[in-house]
Amino acid sequence: MDSPAPPAHDFTGPDRLTFDALTGLRNEHLFRFQLPTEFSRARDGEANGALVAIRLDNILAINAQHGRSGGDEALRAVAYILENSRSSPGRESHLVFKLSGPVFGYSIPVCSAPEARAIAEEIRDRVTSSDLYIGRLTVSLGVVNLYEFFTEEGTREEIALRIEQTAFHRLATAERAGGNTVCDSSDITEDAISARPVVLIVDPEPQSMELLIRALEAAELTVKTCADGESAVSFIQASPPGAIICEAMTPQLNGFTVRDRMRANALWNAIPFILVSHKKTEEFIRKAVEGKILHFLKKPLSVTEVVGLVTNLTRNKA
After folding, report:
1. How far is CA 285 from the centre of its chain?
2. Superfamily of domain covering 15-195
3. Which of 36, 58, 97, 264 is the least crowded, having the fewest Cβ atoms under 10 Å away?
4. How far is 90 from 288, CA to CA, in rounded Å?
5. Mean pLDDT lowest among 91-105, 112-126, 192-206, 249-263
6. Domain boundaries, the chain
7. Angle CA(255)–CA(261)–CA(264) in degrees, nearest 5?
8. CA angle at 20 for the pair 42 and 148, rounded to the nearest 5°
9. Cα(94)–Cα(85) distance, rounded to whole angstroms?
10. Whether 76 contacts 21, CB under 8 Å
């Protein structure tokens, strides 16, 4: 029987910025810093590496049946399994990341394409057969071999973004196949993937937006998430998205402050901005008007309405 999944972590100091408190894994910020380095190392050494994107299947059903704490425990269980996989002999250089929502990244610095597929299948089997959780867990996995991008043009950061987008496209393909599946090839060109508008969702509980995220991805939009306003501003600075959906009451910098920061930059100011909140009071409406926020929606959101609005805004922007 597997050991019980570890509890949530209470990081302080610099670790708070680079590790995920729920799982103890490296976080999304560190992932985006590390991936360009992993790609450069592979291309310069002419040795393939791989990125595996992993998403816990049926997280909405788990949360509905067992509550938020049950969903968190399921994520910790998957994190524990991934760390156990990484600790196997010969895998000391592998890296595991907790990304947005129920998503993980698994980086393999050196491997062949068949080895990458085998590791992904092994992870899938480990999750399915684990008894760490009260119910059966499954994951979908998208695999990208870094050699697929060795002849791509662009900075290493631009290519790393295309690698990430391809991994998520293949992950979505695995999910559409019914979940508990590995996909390591694409029918879509990398140019088509990279051309998709990016929608940034800023919410302190991104897992609560999972239904919206899936609907946006189904509408052929690339979705990124940030849990706080400060991270959102950093993301916008590094790679301005095509549209932003921002909760009014985000930690560190609230949604109104994020919007104020955007207005100070002509490029950022042109990004369509949708404010959302359970608290749509007269005071919040007044602040939205003062911030020239044209779209302010009250939670719970209508997924159909939001997807239609974002699609129209990104299409018009394009």
Report:
1. 30
2. Reverse transcriptase/Diguanylate cyclase domain (3.30.70.270)
3. 264
4. 54
5. 192-206
6. 15-195, 196-318
7. 145
8. 20
9. 9
10. no
